[in-house]
Sequence to fold (121 residues):
Amino acid sequence: MSLRTPQYLPWRYMIPRDFVLSTVLAFGERVVERMFLPGLHRSTNRIVDPARVDDLSALVGDAVGLMILIWMFFLGLYTISIFTNRPIKPYATTIVGAGLMIIVLVGSTAEWFAMPTPPPK
Fold:
């Protein structure tokens, strides 16, 4: 028995791990956005239903949308792995998912800085 960590994980460990990873990344990005970019989720181009703009269901809906985006890239990596007969390294999906969430957060930050400032009272 080797004490070294395996270079590749089996599929039965990889897919549940990636599901948990994408859930944490998506919800984490939306919570960070609401904490550090106040008022961005209330901007006119992001509001779908004004009655539930601060509701938890709006946060969950945004996070599920990000999870779908992450899984599109993860499934692309899995497809490449299957067709090339080369396994995915354990941190490949982590790096891709984290990179996507950094890009989304940078875009949200740019959108927040471009918002008009409210007039002084």
Notes: The mean pLDDT is 87. Residues 11-106 form one domain.
